[in-house]
Design goal:
Elements lengths: L16 H10 L9 H18 L2 E7 L4 E6 L4 H20 L17 H13 L6 E4 L1 H4 L4
């Protein structure tokens, strides 16, 4: 994403071949990819965290190698990422044992204006290609007059 735009209404860049090459060179483990079953477990874990923490999950889309979420009522986004990874790891460990799955940290953006929230929800639901494990709160996804 082109972070200089900051409006979440586009500004996405094509993948960088050089950056991808560098990232693969510094990886300590093989890439971990989610299949449909594992992606569904991760989505369930995200929903569980949001229920437990009283966060409003607007949308989430779990892909083979990353997750996008739009969550309301979160005060500390880094806490949300850590909780999502912990709950998802616990669910995945139950079926395949403990292993390295997640990169350190994650990317967060604060969305305050309704149009930026709608744009982010639309991107997460519709801008990721074919749906894998998707949750969308229907009232947010519907077009606004």
């Amino acid at each position: 994403m082109d972070r200089t735009r900051g409006d979440h209404c586009g500004g996405y860049r094509e993948p960088s071949v050089g950056l991808e090459r560098y990232a693969r060179e510094v990886m300590l483990h093989d890439p971990y990819l989610l299949d449909q079953r594992r992606a569904s477990l991760v989505l369930g874990a995200i929903q569980e965290v949001c229920t437990f923490r009283s966060w409003e999950l607007l949308t989430a889309h779990v892909r083979t190698n990353h997750v996008h979420c739009v969550v309301g009522d979160v005060i500390h986004p880094s806490r949300a990422i850590a909780d999502f990874k912990a709950y998802a790891s616990r669910a995945l460990n139950a079926i395949e044992g403990n292993q390295k799955r997640w990169a350190r940290g994650g990317s967060t953006h604060t969305l305050e204006a309704p149009h930026t929230i709608r744009a982010a929800v639309s991107y997460v639901v519709d801008g990721q290609g074919e749906g894998m494990a998707v949750y969308a709160w229907h009232r947010v996804v519907q077009p606004h007059p």
